[in-house]
Amino acid sequence: MINIPKGTKDVLPQESYKWQYVEKKAREVCRLFNFREIRTPVFEHTELFTRSIGDDTDVVKKEMYTFLDKGGRSMTLKPEGTAPVARSYVENALEAYSLPLKMYYITPVFRYENPQAGRLREHHQFGVEVYGGDNAYLDFEVIGLAHKFLSDLGVTGLVLNLNSIGCEKCRDGYNKALKEYLSSRLNEMCPTCRERFERNPLRILDCKVEGCRKIVADAPKITDYICDDCRAHMAALEKLLKDYGIEYKVNPNIVRGLDYYTKTVFEFVTTALGAQGTVCGGGRYNHLVESVGGKPTPCVGFGLGLERLLMLLDSIGINIEDDNRPDIFVISQKPDYTDECIKIVKALREKSVAAETEYTGRSLKAQFRYADKLNARYVAVIGESELNSGEADIKNLADGTAEKIKIDKIANYILEKRKCQSF
After folding, report:
1. Tens digit of each residue's pLDDT (9 = 90 or more) over 261-317
2. Which domains does the chain have, with CATH numbers?
3. Beta strands in 306-387 (DSSP E)
4. pLDDT tens readout for residues 87-97
5. How far from the centroid of its chain's Cα atoms is residue 327's Cα?
6. Which of 20, 168, 212, 243 ranks highest by number of CB atoms within 10 Å?
7. Rounded distance between C-alpha atoms, residue 276 and residue 262, angstroms
């Protein structure tokens, strides 16, 4: 037997309806906010990620699936969704469209890391991107979309953690202060952080090693070093959040391990499970487009892991109904009537009624059990008397009631029940 690769997971038929529901909700909220879908390839030139994410990040150094194609070119399965969108924006001259340009994606991403609950080597992201605007209104637009999406799904205990990591003008001063603080304790830090110390000390704040986390707990806060422009941007965003009732708190410990982030960074966390867990994260990245060869273009967006979200919904008891069920199962009283049942099912489907019938010769009793297992809403038994009279008993499997309906009117009957929200 050939087993599934480590860190991947099959989405089985009895689970896929949950994915469809969440993806539908994502598309619905993006439609409300006038975001349009963009789809980028599963693999890109490796250079895209080394230039945008940074060749000293853990993602590039340790986690990317990189390979040479048959032409000897270095390719990488995309480890995140943002850089490919930037590449597409530049390559397809999307700046020619009316700005701001609002896009979203639902995509698989790949990272070679130790698999854990909600975080696999192949996982899936829902993300949004806004290109062409540098004011706090667009930060608020992205945050508002994430808030509505999560709220519509029923995620409770949501808190927005907010920070500003400044811009290139004010980050130099902070990096200097941070290095001064860390220099005396450098030998106590992990090898990765000792490397980061010279190249990008800000990333040390994002280290997950417990010893490093304790060291940086009392480090200088970046919010004390941001310039007037970044401070005004943060203040404007905070005012919008207060005005529109989105609960938040400033958390100066939120940073980003990717090179392209500037100014706003944020995370939605939930206390619904008794401990804070990040649901989605995002921020502003005004230098990303430049890093992949485009003109300076301000951008803001977020990314959200669907596996983790589905795990959260299940943990807090959000019940997602399986709508992938037959409206009616047409039961053949004998195998002799299978052809007639198929004709009935075909006619029902042409009128947008989800219909199913028996194809394998099950007994009458076994067909009822099968219809129940499929969670069909109604059943109709077709035999000689029903075909002669042109009508059949339509039984509601939920309450056991039945009505005699003309066979050629079954579709109308089902559609009327649906209209009246009887199911």
Report:
1. 889 999 999 877 655 678 999 999 998 999 899 999 999 999 999 999 999 999 889
2. 16-166+237-315 (3.30.930.10), 168-225 (no CATH), 328-419 (3.40.50.800)
3. 328-332, 355-357, 378-382
4. 999 999 999 99
5. 30
6. 212
7. 25
pLDDT tens-digit map of 347-387: 999 999 999 999 999 999 999 999 999 999 999 999 999 99
40-70 pLDDT per residue, tens: 999 999 999 988 877 656 677 778 999 999 9
**Residue 401, SS3 per DSSP:** coil
> Residue 361 has which token pair?
């010769």
Q: Specify the DSSP class assigned to residue 7.
A: T
Q: Residue 163: which of 239, 236, 223, 242 has the closest Cα?
A: 223
Please tell me which residue, 200 or 96, carries the higher pLDDT value: 96
The one-letter code for the residue type at 208 is K
Full 3-state SS string of 108-152? EEECCCCCECCECCEEEEEEEEEECCCCHHHHHHHHHHHHHHHHH
171, amino acid identity: R
Helix 306-315 vs helix 16-32: angle between axes, to the nearest 10 degrees?
A: 110
- The first and second tokens of residue 177, run together, are 């202060």
**Cis link prior to 100 (omega < 30° from 0)?**
yes
**Cα–Cα nearest to 190, from 224, 213, 165:** 213
180-192 mean pLDDT:
88
Query: pTM above 0.85?
Result: yes
The tokens of 247 are what? 């609960």
Picking from 218, 205, 193, the residue whose alpha carbon sits closest to that of residue 253 is 205
